[in-house]
Amino acid sequence: MVLTGRWTMPRHILSADLQGPSKTAGARTAQLTTALHERGQTTFTLADVRDITCLSAASARSLIRHAVNRGIVSRLESGLFVLVPPEFGRAHEFSGNPYVVARELVAGADYYISHASAMELHRMVTQPQFVIFTSTMKRFRNRTIHGTEFRFVLIRPKDMFGLTPHWITKQDAVKVSDLERTVIDGLRLPEYCGGITEVAKGLWIRRADIKTSRLIEYALRLRVGAVIRRLGYLLELYRLAPAEELDRLRSSLTATYAVLDPLVPAEGPHVSSWRLRINIAPEELEAVRRT
Question: What is the dihedral angle through the alpha carbons of 236, 240, 244, 247, rounded to the nearest 10 degrees?
Answer without folding.
Answer: -40
